[in-house]
Amino acid sequence: MVAVHDGETINNDQKDPSRWETLVLAYKTLGVVFGGLVTSPLYVYPSMPLKSPTEDDYLGIYSIMFWTLSLIGVVKYATIALQADDQGEGGTFALYSLLCRNINIGILSSKSASLNSSHSYVNQSKKLSRLGKFCERSLIARRILLFIAMLGMCMLIGDGILTPAISVLSAMDGLRARFSSVSKSLVEGLSAIVLIVLFLLQKFGTSRVSFLFSPIMGAWTLTTPLVGIYSIIKHYPSIFKAISPHYIVLFFLRNGKQGWIYLGGTVLCITGSEAMFADLGHFNKSSIRIAFFCTIYPSLVLTYAGQTAYLIRNPDDHFDGFYKFIPSAVYWSNFCDSHISC
């Protein structure tokens, strides 16, 4: 199968890449797939309307973020969703295409589609489940499935529009964290300029963009967890006790309805995780998994742990939760890296 992305042609029927080629692809995913996910520490804590947070509140929040990253990032996407590819392609319509290929709900019947597909798991002799038979018979069910597929794609497009704006604004807020005289309008103007430059770069295609941004993202995923480790040692070495899920239960019991409002901020820690599946056609399963498990996941766990450790000792700094926990010696290097990473 031949797929076209960003003006580039990718042949998904070619032989499996070698180990070296897979490692190169894993390196390139840093600049294309994980840009939104690894920059989420910039705005997770500032987005929460915390009121006089306590040590137990921060432990509960970190526990929520850890398990959200683990269940959504590790279990849902890296383990399950990547297995549901459509001849090497990922995304919402890839899932819908699989349904169309296996049951008669699309323009082509499943029999006709299977003749045009060499995918090994298509087996027309297998009996359909009751749900499959219901979807074949019900026009309403077929339309609902198509609507869900289109809605998912619209939400993905919306995420692609909103996330860069939030990331760049949060990164630029580092100026206000350092210099109180910097106005909000100046931050917004500079953010707009950065966004224009970033979007102009997209026309060069996935390969060139990954070549430019992968080393930058590599530096980001290396420096932020190191800062996190430093913060953990300095401020709260026992932070990893929050991995215990009982801190989540205590958090909601203590905060009640307000805890569910805080949850809206904590789920931002998985912003961009859907790109692991949506961008599958640009890379392959192994490269995405290698990058995620070896760099992205441990980097985020350590970065959020470091932020939380700092905020436990400085609870009123959560509106500048990222830049406040960065040591002065590496402040400007992280400031510049955060802008380019966004």
Structural description of this entry:
65% of the residues lie in helices and 2% in strands. It is built from 14 helices and two strands; from the N terminus they run E-E-H-H-H-H-H-H-H-H-H-H-H-H-H-H. By secondary structure, it is an all-alpha fold. Strand 1 and strand 2 form a beta hairpin. Helix 3 crosses helix 10 and helix 4 runs antiparallel to helix 7. It is a multi-pass membrane protein. Belongs to the HAK/KUP transporter (TC 2.A.72.3) family.
Keywords:
65% helix; 14 helices; mainly alpha; K_trans_N; disordered N terminus; two-stranded antiparallel ribbon; globular; 342 residues
Write the layout of secondary structure elements.
Layout: E1 2-5, E2 8-11, H1 19-32, H2 35-38, H3 55-80, H4 92-102, H5 110-115, H6 130-137, H7 139-178, H8 184-201, H9 205-235, H10 246-255, H11 257-266, H12 275-278, H13 285-313, H14 331-341
Antiparallel strand pairs: 1-2
Helix pairs in contact: 1-9, 1-13, 3-10, 3-13, 4-7, 6-7, 7-8, 9-13, 9-14, 10-11
InterPro entries: K+_transporter, K_trans_N
Domain K+ potassium transporter integral membrane: 26-336
Main location: membrane
Strand content: under 5%
Structural class: mainly alpha
In angstroms, what separates the terminal alpha carbons? 32 Å
Count all strands and give the number: 2
What is the element string, with H for helices and E for strands?
A: EEHHHHHHHHHHHHHH
Estimate the helix proportion, in percent.
Answer: 55-70%
The biggest beta sheet is recorded as:
2 strands, antiparallel
Low-confidence stretches: 1-13, 108-125
What is the number of independent domains? 1
Strand order of the biggest β-sheet: 1-2
As a whole number of angstroms, the C-alpha radius of gyration is 22 Å
Contiguous helical run count: 14
Anisotropy-based shape: globular
Calculate the mean pLDDT score and round it: 82
